[in-house]
Design goal:
single chain; mainly alpha; 2 domains; two-stranded antiparallel ribbon; 2 strands; 69% helix
Length: 412
């Protein structure tokens, strides 16, 4: 858009030009209304010099109008558009570097968690320990710093979303990969639709209701069954005034297994599960039903991002993220109003044992694998778009490639 000054200059000059350009037409009209006495005598050919002069004046005026239009309007518009693009690119650069740095920091830790399964023993503990003793203090630090790295990246993504100029540049065709990688990262944190499908398939297999391959063939039907089972779980929790399935007593746990077995048998039009089979299989089935999940939905991500940001005045950026000290104080406070957000973040890494190769009753290892892949893709995308002063080194780029090579893509 051009400025009000551009508009005023343009219209003032345009008015003058309109007056000037109307002069040849008025001259032509005067020539056409001259007395007949001044006309050329019949039979004497006209020289046409008057008409030629009028045409020349019109052409000259047209070129003059066109030149000033180009100079005062089109050229101004082009210059202002270029200035806007430079401003947006400057905003993008100011945010892309901390975003890239936080993505690299988290990638280093996720590589350790996902690919070096003997190392993340610090995730097996519940909550935050007091940190007494060298070994304990180190484990508390590792767990807390992992949460901080995750929260920092969420914070910078949120800052970029709130800075519209960054969004415009990131969503452009040149940087489309960055926008897609951020979307994949957010999806890995928030989307657990695959758990609904996985839960149905495992229950069908445990109770031998049908061939698993047959159930998998109809994706739409499988998704519908997943929603029905999910709704049955939530209805049962509400009727028992429980927040989680593990709060039910053994009789309640067995009862919900019987209810869902009946639901699946009816929906699949197959024989019901016998009492003898239910007596043997319900503990395993209940483990599948109570599979541990820790999704951070998109609005929760935004809230965590806002929690991690603070406004800065007189700086190149509008936002900065909290430092580690401030984050540690948030986590250690029990009565802070943002405690629920900290807990939602911590649930992803709390009491997580990655040494178990079959994460049968826990969705979080698969969630972390998807998060690692999305993180690696983001690092690659930002490296491809960074300038010569970018923060992503070749070593970090190689690490991203290693993660993508070793962590297989899984259906989400």
């Amino acid at each position: 858009m051009y400025t009000s000054l551009t508009r005023r200059v343009f219209w003032s000059r345009a008015g003058a030009l309109l007056c000037f350009s109307s002069f040849p037409q008025s001259l032509s009209a005067q020539n056409n209304t001259k007395p007949a006495a001044n006309s050329v005598a019949p039979g004497v050919p006209s020289s046409g010099s008057g008409e030629a002069a009028v045409k020349a004046a019109i052409i000259t005026a047209s070129f003059t109008v066109g030149g000033i239009l180009f100079k005062d309007l089109l050229l101004k518009l082009w210059e202002e558009r270029r200035a806007l693009q430079r401003e947006e690119s400057a905003v993008y650069d100011r945010y892309s570097k901390p975003l890239a740095a936080s993505a690299c920091s988290l990638l280093i830790r996720l590589n350790e968690i996902v690919l070096q399964k003997h190392r993340p023993v610090y995730l097996k503990s519940a909550g935050f320990l007091d940190g007494k003793g060298q070994g304990s203090a180190f484990r508390v630090y590792k767990k807390l710093s992992t949460l901080y790295r995750l929260a920092t990246l969420i914070g910078w993504i949120r800052a970029c979303r709130r800075e519209y100029s960054f969004v415009r540049v990131a969503a452009s065709r040149k940087n489309e990969r960055i926008d897609e990688a951020i979307a994949a990262f957010e999806k890995a944190l928030a989307d657990g639709i695959w758990v609904e499908r996985e839960r149905v398939l495992r229950l069908v297999d445990v109770w031998k209701l049908q061939q698993v391959t047959e159930v998998e063939k109809d994706a739409g039907r499988l998704e519908e069954l997943g929603v029905l089972v999910d709704n049955a779980i939530y209805d049962n929790l509400e009727s028992n005034k429980a927040a989680e399935l593990f709060e039910l007593d053994p009789a309640g746990q067995q009862k919900i297994c019987v209810e869902i077995a009946g639901l699946l048998a009816r929906q699949l039009n197959t024989n019901p599960v016998s009492e003898a089979m239910m007596k043997v299989t319900w503990p395993v089935a209940f483990g599948i039903l109570s599979m541990r999940e820790a999704w951070i939905y998109k609005d929760w991500q935004d809230a965590i991002g806002d929690m991690m940001l603070r406004r800065v005045e007189g700086e190149d950026r509008k936002f900065e993220v909290l430092g580690f000290y401030e984050f540690e104080k948030l986590c250690s406070s029990t009565d802070h109003e943002q405690r629920p957000l900290i807990q939602r973040l911590a649930d992803i890494l709390d009491q997580l044992d990655l040494s178990i190769t079959q994460d049968r009753f826990d969705a979080r290892p698969r969630q972390l694998r998807a998060l690692a892949r999305a993180n690696a893709n983001l690092v690659q995308a930002m490296h491809a778009a960074q300038s010569s002063s970018g923060v992503i080194s070749d070593r970090l780029l190689d690490l991203a490639k290693t993660v993508l090579d070793k962590v297989k893509a899984e259906r989400l």
